[in-house]
């Protein structure tokens, strides 16, 4: 699979309920290394967690310039902030700046609303450093997750 780099034009498309299975497969591919590292890889539990929090009305498909599905991101209002979740890219798309490009789009949208962005990452996930590089700071943690927030640039 040929994946573009961050300089290529990515696009978004709205997700539908019918996209659940293919987005779940991307989630498994993206999360498996982190979950295995902490001994928590369980496809059925992963399916249940994704099912419980899948909000297609706030989920976008991330498409390569070829219109190939390479990931997804959910981004929508929750409790006076914007919740960023289910941000997954297929492994072939990781490490090319594509994630940063997608995240910069979400940051710009959040800044335009004046709302903070909240998210959580697995304690042992490399995603923590990724989000810290983009201005997120830890607010608290629990047994498995680290919760992070980024205030809007205009705050």
Q: How much is the radius of gyration in Å? A: 15 Å
Mean pLDDT: 90
Give the strand line-up of the largest sheet. Answer: 1-2-3-4-5-7-6
| Number of E strands | 7
Alpha-carbon distance between the termini? 41 Å
Bulk shape: globular
Structural class: alpha+beta
User: Count of helices?
Assistant: 4
Helix content bin: 25-40%
Keywords:
alpha+beta; globular; 155 residues; 7 strands
Please describe the topology of this protein.
Blueprint: E1 11-14, H1 20-37, H2 43-53, E2 59-63, E3 69-78, E4 81-89, H3 98-113, E5 117-122, H4 127-133, E6 137-141, E7 145-150
Parallel strand pairs: 4-5
Antiparallel strand pairs: 1-2, 2-3, 3-4, 5-7, 6-7
Helix pairs in contact: 1-2
Q: How would you sum up this structure, described in words?
A:
This protein is an alpha+beta fold and 155 residues long. It has four helices and seven strands, in the order βααβββαβαββ. The protein has a seven-stranded mixed beta sheet. β4, α3 and β5 form a beta-alpha-beta unit. α1 packs across α2. It is globular, with a radius of gyration of 15 Å.
């Amino acid at each position: 699979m040929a994946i573009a780099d961050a300089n290529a034009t990515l696009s978004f498309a709205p997700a539908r309920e019918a996209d659940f299975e293919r987005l779940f497969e991307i989630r498994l591919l993206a999360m498996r290394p982190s979950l295995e590292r902490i001994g928590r890889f369980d496809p059925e539990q992963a399916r249940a967690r994704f099912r419980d929090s899948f909000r297609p009305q706030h989920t976008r498909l991330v498409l390569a310039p070829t219109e190939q599905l390479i990931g997804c991101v959910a981004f929508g209002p929750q409790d006076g902030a914007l919740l960023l979740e289910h941000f997954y890219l297929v492994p072939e798309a990781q490490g090319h700046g594509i994630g940063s490009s997608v995240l910069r789009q979400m940051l710009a949208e959040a800044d335009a609303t004046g709302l903070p962005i909240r998210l959580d990452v697995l304690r042992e996930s490399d995603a923590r450093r990724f989000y810290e590089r983009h201005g997120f700071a830890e607010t608290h943690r629990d047994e498995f997750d680290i919760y992070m927030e980024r205030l809007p640039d205009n705050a």
